[in-house]
Amino acid sequence: MENYLNHPEVPIGLGMALAKNPAAMNHFSNLDVEGKRRIIEQTHSVRSKDEMDSLVSHITDGNSFR
Q: Could you tell me the superkingdom of the organism this chain comes from (predicted)?
């Protein structure tokens, strides 16, 4: 299995938030490249730690945080 979190494309804030949420990290790791890209794109509008945590908490339910 590819460890996507080691890729430089994953923003540090996303990686840190995923590390705190094993279910979301597992779900993210199992996404295809396009699914990962869509989540990473959402991080560009995140302005706080709380927003990043919210985004990550919604990864497993397939919803965006907004």
A: Bacteria
pTM greater than 0.85 (yes/no): no
Cα separation, 51 vs 20, in Å, equals 14
> For the chain, how many structural domains are there in total?
1
Can you read off the two tokens belonging to residue 34? 């396009």
**Dihedral, CA atoms, 7, 64, 27, 1, nearest 10 degrees?**
-30
Amino acid at 32: D
Residue 43, SS3 per DSSP: helix
**In 1-66, which ranges are continuous DSSP H helix?**
12-19, 22-30, 33-43, 49-57
Question: What residues make up the domain containing 43?
Answer: 4-61
Domain assignment present for residue 66? The answer is no
